[in-house]
Automatic annotation (TrEMBL):
Source species, domain of life: Eukaryota
Listed name of the protein: Gap junction epsilon-1 protein
Chief location: membrane
UniProt keyword annotations, A-Z: Cell membrane, Disulfide bond, Membrane, Transmembrane, Transmembrane helix, Transport
Annotated membrane topology: Multi-pass membrane protein
Transmembrane segments: 25-44, 75-94, 114-134, 171-192
Similarity comment: Belongs to the connexin family. Beta-type (group I) subfamily.
GO molecular function, one term: gap junction channel activity
Pfam families on file: Connexin (PF00029)
Lineage: Eukaryota, Metazoa, Chordata, Craniata, Vertebrata
Residue ranges occupied by any Connexin cysteine-rich domain in the UniProt entry: 125-194
GO cellular component: connexin complex
C-alpha cells in the first residue's frame, strides 16, 4: 500500500465525515482508551496476587481465581475496543483504496449506505459486548466469592475467597457500562446526523 493510501486511511479514521463521528473518535480514542489503559491497570493489575481463599494455599487460590475470572476485565475490554474499531477501519481502508474523499462520503448514496452500515455494525458489536459483560462480570463485585473446589478432590467443596478492592472494581464496571452506552448513543446520533444531511436539514460539511 502506497504512502498516499496510508495517509488517506489514517485521516479517515481520525476525521470521520460527520461532526458526531469526529466526537466519537475523540471520546473513543482518547477518554475510553486512557481510562482503560491507565486506571484499568491500577484497579486490576494486582488482583490475582491479592486474591486469597480459605485455606490460603496457592493451588486453591489459583483454581478459584480462574473460576472467578474466566477472562480478565482488561483483556475483555481491550478486545471489545479492537473489535468495535474493525467496521470503521474496513470502511476507511475501502475509502482509501478507492481514493474517496471524506467530504464525498455523504454525497453518493452507495458510499453513504456503506458508511451507515459500518456505524450500525459498531452498534451491534457494542450491544453484544454489553451483554457479554453482564454475563461475565455482572453489575457489582462482592467482597466474598464462594468458590466450588470440588474438582480439586478436597474434603470441602465450597470455600470463601476474598476479592481485593471490590468497591473500586464495582465503580470501574459501572464506568465501562456507561462508556458503552455513550458510544452507542453517539453511533445512533451519527446515523441521525447523516440522515438529516441527506434530507437537506443540515448543511453538508
Amino acid at each position: 500500500m502506497s504512502p498516499n493510501y496510508i495517509r488517506s486511511f489514517s485521516e479517515g479514521c481520525l476525521r470521520p465525515p460527520t461532526v458526531i463521528g469526529q466526537f466519537h473518535t475523540l471520546f473513543f480514542g482518547s477518554i475510553r482508551m486512557f481510562f482503560l489503559g491507565v486506571l484499568g491497570f491500577a484497579v486490576y493489575g494486582n488482583e490475582a496476587l491479592h486474591f486469597s481463599c480459605d485455606p490460603d494455599k496457592r493451588e486453591v487460590n489459583l483454581f478459584c481465581y480462574n473460576q472467578f475470572r474466566p477472562i480478565t476485565p482488561q483483556v475483555f475490554w481491550a478486545l471489545q475496543l479492537v473489535i468495535v474499531l474493525v467496521p470503521g477501519a474496513f470502511f476507511h481502508l475501502y475509502a482509501a483504496c478507492k481514493s474517496i474523499k471524506q467530504e464525498d462520503i455523504l454525497q453518493k448514496s452507495s458510499y453513504t449506505g456503506f458508511y451507515i452500515f459500518s456505524v450500525f455494525l459498531r452498534i451491534v458489536l457494542e450491544v453484544v459486548a454489553f451483554w457479554l459483560q453482564i454475563q461475565l462480570f455482572g453489575f457489582k463485585v462482592n467482597a466474598i466469592y464462594m468458590c466450588d473446589v470440588g474438582a480439586l478432590e478436597k474434603k470441602f467443596n465450597i470455600t470463601r475467597c476474598m476479592v481485593p478492592e471490590h468497591f473500586e472494581k464495582t465503580i470501574f464496571l459501572i464506568a465501562m457500562y456507561t462508556f458503552t452506552v455513550i458510544t452507542v448513543i453517539l453511533c445512533v446520533a451519527e446515523i441521525f446526523e447523516i440522515s438529516c444531511r441527506r434530507l437537506g436539514l443540515l448543511k453538508t460539511q
